[in-house]
Amino acid sequence: MTSQHPSPNDLVFTGSGLTVTQTREAITNLVDALLRTSAIEETETVALDDALHRILALPVLSPINVPAADNSAMDGFAFQSSELTNAAPIQLKIVGSVFAGTPYSGTLQSGECLKIMTGALMPPQCDTVIPQEMTRLVPSVASETALVEFAPDAVRAGENRRLCGEDLAKDSVAIAAGRLLRPSDLGLAASLGIATLTVRRKLRVAILSSGNELRQLGDALDPGSIYDSNRYSLMGLLKRLNVDVIDCGIVQDDPASLKAAFQTAALRADVLISSGGVSVGEADFTKQIMQELGDVGFWKIAMRPGRPMAFGVLKPVAGQTPPRSTLFFGLPGNPVAVMVTFYQFVRSALLQLSGSSQLAPPTIQAISSAPIRKKPGRTEFQRGILELGPDGRAQVRVTGSQGAGILRSMSEANCFIVLDHDQGNIATGELVNVVLFEGLL
Ligand code: AMP
Ligand code: MG
Predict the structure, then answer these.
(1) Which of 97, 157, 191, 290 could form a disulfide with 296 if both were Cys (CB 3.0 to 4.6 A apart)?
(2) Tell me, which fold does domain 71-162 have in CATH?
(3) What average pLDDT score do residues 325-350 get?
(4) 248 C-alpha vs ligand 1 centroid, how far in Å?
(5) Cα–Cα distance between 4 and 34 in angstroms, integer?
C-alpha cells in the first residue's frame, strides 16, 4: 500500500463531530483507495472442509448441468402428457417402478405409467408426474396389474419434473468471487464434484490494549487497576470473522513502549486495532506518536457509545519487504464502546479489505415494548433483547444499564437497537431498527 489515499486528517467536522454515516463513508473511501494501490491479492487453495467462512477468490463455475438430466420432483406416477385427455377420470396401468439412481430401460405403451420416486430419472417416454397423494389405486379386473386413477385437471403437461440444467447450467457461475462461504456454499460445491476452493489469504489483524491500569488475567489487582477485557472481546469478534489474530498484549501508556508496539504490529499485520488512549486527555499523547508513524485522524463521532476514535494508515516500517502500510483503528477504551465501534466501522472495513462482497449486516425492524430515551444529534447503539411478543410480532426492549463500560448489558443482549442521528425519544409501540448479534458478533 502506498500513501496515495485520502487523508483521515482532511475531514472537516463541526463541534458535535462526524456523523456515523460520514465516518463509515470516510473509512470505506480510504480502504477503497488502499485497495486500488495495493490490494491483498494472495490466495490459497483449501479443501472444502476447511473453506467455511473463508472468502472465495475465484468464482466457482459449474462443470455440469444441475440436475444432470430430467428427473421427478415428487413421489408419484410418471406418464406421457398425451394421456391427459378430458375424459374423467384418467386411468393408467402401472407397469413398473423407477427408483433414484436406477434409470428405467423399458418402453411404455399408450395407457401405461410407472411408479416413480423423487429424484429418479424421467423414463424416456414420460414428461409428467402426478403426485401420489392426488391419485387412487383401482384394482384391475382385466389383469394382475393395478391401475392408478386421477382427475384430468389434477396435473398439467410437464408438471412435477425437474429439467436438466434447471438449477444451474454447465459453465455458469455457481458461487461468485467475494462470497463469504457459508455451509450451503460448501454443499453446493460438493454437489458439483468440486473438492477444493481458491480463497483469499486470511487477514492478519494485530490487537493491543493500552493503559497503565490494565492487568493480565492471573495477575493480582492492585488498587485502581482492572483486568484487560477488551482484548478478549476483540479476539472473539475477530475469530468470528475468521482472521489470523496477532495478540500484542497490554502496552503501557508511555511513548517509547507504544511506539515500539505499534511498529512491531505494523511489521506483521495488515490491520492494527488498539483500544484505549484515544479519549480527551490521552489523545494528545497518542497523536504525537501517530504523527511519526503514519497518517491518522483523531475523530469525534456523534455516537454513543464510542465518541472518540482514531483511524488511519501506518507507514511501512523501515526495511520492511515488501513495504506495506497497515490500516489502524484506535478504538475507545470503554468495553462496550470497543464492541460498538468494531461492529460499526471495523467489521465492514476488514471484510472490504479481505475482498468480501458482503459488507452490511442485515437490519430488521421491531416494535419497542417500552419507551427509550434518546437525544437527537447522535446515533445511539443500545443493547436490546429481541423476542416474539404475545401477538407473534418481533418486539425489542433495552437491557438494563446502558453505560459504556457495562459489558454485562452486551452479554445479556441479543441485538443492538440502532437509533438514528436525528431521532428523539421512542414511545412504546414505535418501530426501531435492530441488528442481531448472531451472525454479526
Ligand atoms: P481510555 O479510552 O483509555 O480513556 O479508557 C476509557 C475507559 O475504558 C477507562 O475506564 C479504562 O480503564 C477502560 N479501559 C481501557 N482499556 C480497557 C481494557 N483493555 N479492558 C477494560 N477496560 C478498559
Ligand atoms: Mg486509557
Answers:
(1) 290
(2) Molybdopterin biosynthesis moeA protein; domain 3 (2.170.190)
(3) 95
(4) 16
(5) 8
